[in-house]
Amino acid sequence: MRLKFALIIVTVVGGWSGLAAPANAHPATGIVVDRGGNVYFSDLETVWKLDPAGKKTVFRAGVSGRHVHELAIDDEGNVYGADLSYKPARQTWPSSVWKMSPDGNFTYLVEPTENPPRGMSIWRDRAGNTYFIDQNNHTKTQTLLLRREPNGRVTTLAGSAYAHKDGNGAAANFGSVGSMAFAPDGSLYLTDGTSVRRVSMAGAVTTVAQDLNFRTREDKPTLFGGTGGSLTGLTVDANGNVYVADAGNRRLLKITSAGKVEVVYRVEPPFFPNGVFAAANGDVYVMEVGLSLPGTSSGPRVRKLSGAKNEIVAIGVAPAGIKAAVIEQLGAKTERVIEFFYFGGATRVIVILMSAALVISLVAVLKRRRERRI
User: Fold this and answer.
1) Given a cut of 80, is residue 123 above it in pLDDT?
2) How many CB atoms lie within 10 A of CB 273?
């Protein structure tokens, strides 16, 4: 009942969506930082560069319909991304993997194709091996972490049937894996449902933290993440602390090296943290997305966490201006209305309906009195 009312309100308020930017059904999580403090992040189509002085430039120009969800970076500052496009005439999803050097030199590692090489991805170790999650969240039969060697040989590093179990190699099980990130020690960290898992280069899988969809009175959930929370981007700093964006609860979580879970900060609607990256100097950068229902974006912004200080580095980078500000305000108001109905309980809905019926009845009475006078 509550969900139906929420959807009705979304439909009504969504009539304003003509003001909005292109729809972002699955906002990007890609944000990386080089050793010089330059920040690179994706708004789903365009990859932006933000220098230490706050000057923003286009690093890789976007193309409508071509999406870049994640980004990776190597020790030399080369940025890696994967394109995903949709060809409606053929009903196919061509994809590619690319690399851009700090000076903007672009290279395809995998040319756009409907049949990409198995195990090829943007996640590569210092030896040139790439790592890829092979899963089907519809059938939920198996989830594999593949390793592709430079010579093209593909093996399963860990995983087998769809489940959740720690272990070595095929004895370990994954569920629905979302994001991936390398730790400074070379191990891989993954978001798996409401958990964070660690995978060693020998294939040993351990659960770092689980049940991360816990909610407190201070949390303000979004429809983007449903009511169960939604873990998106994650990163690991030099001290072994894991930072994970809990988009569904509008907060950044920190899992200390001792396993303690902390809420680093929360953000107000319509923004939510979606991507995160720990820089070499210890600063943590978070990309927040402003989503105005039913799925339009006011543009991403970047927040830098330096020690105990939260510093906003850039706001409304793409797009910017009056339209973005209007969309941002509309998103905040829309979510407040939805929160009023969806989280207010049946009593609130009944009161609202009764109030509306009373107003309608009063209007009808006044109309009849006016007609009698005439």
Assistant:
1) yes
2) 27
The Cβ-side half-sphere exposure at 364, using a 13 Å CA radius, reads 6
pLDDT interval class at 204 (50, 70, 90): very high
| SS3 label, residue 25 | coil
Q: Name the pLDDT band for 139 (thresholds 50, 70, 90).
A: very high
**Residue 19: pLDDT over 70:** no
pTM of the model: 0.80
Q: Using an 8 Å Cβ cutoff, are 30 and 71 in contact? A: yes
Residue 199 CA to its chain's centroid (Å): 22
Residue for token digits 């009903």?
Answer: 91
Least confident of 70-74, 85-89, 222-226: 222-226
Q: Distance between CA 370 and CA 98 in Å, rounded?
A: 72
- Distance of alpha carbon 353 from alpha carbon 348, whole angstroms: 9
- The residues with which 273 forms a beta bridge, in sequence order, are 288
Burial environment of residue 66 by CB neighbours within 10 A (0 to 12, 13 to 18, 19 or more): middle
Q: Which residues contact 353 (CB under 8 A, 6 or more apart)?
A: none
Task: State which amino acid sits at residue 197.
Answer: R
Whole-angstrom distance, CA of residue 94 vs CA of residue 304: 34
Give the distance, in angstroms, between the CA of residue 306 and the centroid of all CA atoms in the same chain: 22
Q: What's the maximum distance between 2 C-alpha atoms anywhere in the chain?
A: 92
190 vs 337, higher pLDDT: 190
